[in-house]
TrEMBL record:
GO terms for molecular function: endonuclease activity; nucleic acid binding; zinc ion binding. Keywords: Endonuclease, Hydrolase, Nuclease. It comes from [Bacillus] enclensis. The lineage of its organism: Bacteria, Bacillati, Bacillota, Bacilli, Bacillales. It comes from the Bacteria. Pfam families: HNH. Residues 42-85 form the HNH domain. This is HNH endonuclease.
Length: 235
């Protein structure tokens, strides 16, 4: 999970639908704005180009009209994550709230070879952090037989992304040491690395932790996203 800025104002249809007897938040403007805000990714697992789109409530509405139609409570998710979360995880970190500091509260790691389990680690002694870690462990590593199969599909996509990202890091390092005069190619690789670290990239949280966990990589590439984190904390 990474920080996403939630856009304002809310989609106009929410206020209109809220006052209908059978109103729905599943309107085109809501879905379109959610896809834009969350970069067409599930906010929980960070899988991209979703086939099964769910409009998820961060806090279960339980037929509370205000919660049901609150723009701040609506998030974009995949069916896998939504079905695991349901009403069981209302007390998790809010990735659209700067003060929740989602990217420095939880560490994400996966070893780049088949059948690896995803490691999700709490970095703060906090109940909401712990609940978020519990949810993410179930999302990435599975619970039931069916959910474990779905998690394996997510991890296959995750590993492809991580391997592609690591390949660029190795290529950049080789160019820096053996072909330091090839500035055009070095800059080209750095731009590709930068794209992987953007919010719009799949599984950005894992890639950023690869950088943050290595002092040399942090010095080289940390400015591509750490400045963004610093800016959001001062808002």
């Amino acid at each position: 999970m990474i920080y996403f800025e939630k856009s304002l104002p809310a989609p106009p249809s929410l206020e209109i639908e809220k006052h209908k007897n059978n109103g729905t938040y599943l309107k085109a403007d809501v879905i379109s704005q959610l896809k834009q805000d969350f970069k067409n990714k599930c906010y929980i697992c960070e899988n991209k180009a979703l086939i099964s789109i769910n409009v998820e409530h961060l806090v279960s509405h339980r037929e509370d009209i205000d919660k049901k139609f609150s723009w701040e409570n609506l998030f974009l998710s995949c069916s896998h994550c939504n079905n695991i979360k349901l009403h069981h995880y209302d007390n998790i970190l809010n990735c659209t709230m700067v003060e929740d500091d989602i990217e420095n509260s939880i560490k994400l790691k996966v070893d780049p070879y088949p059948k690896s389990s995803v490691e999700v680690t709490a970095l703060k002694n906090d109940e909401r952090v712990e609940k978020t870690v519990e949810l993410l462990n179930k999302v990435y590593n599975g619970t039931t037989i069916l959910k474990t199969e779905e998690a394996e599909t997510i991890k296959k996509n995750l590993l492809k992304e991580i391997l592609a990202f690591q390949s660029l890091l190795f290529e950049y390092d080789e160019l820096e040491h053996d072909h330091e005069d090839d500035l055009e190619e070095i800059n080209n690789i750095k731009k590709q690395i930068s794209r992987h670290l953007r919010n719009s990239s799949a599984y950005t949280g894992f890639k950023r932790w690869i950088i943050k966990a290595n002092e040399s990589l942090t010095i080289e590439f940390g400015s591509l996203f750490l400045e963004q984190e610093s800016d959001t904390k001062t808002i």
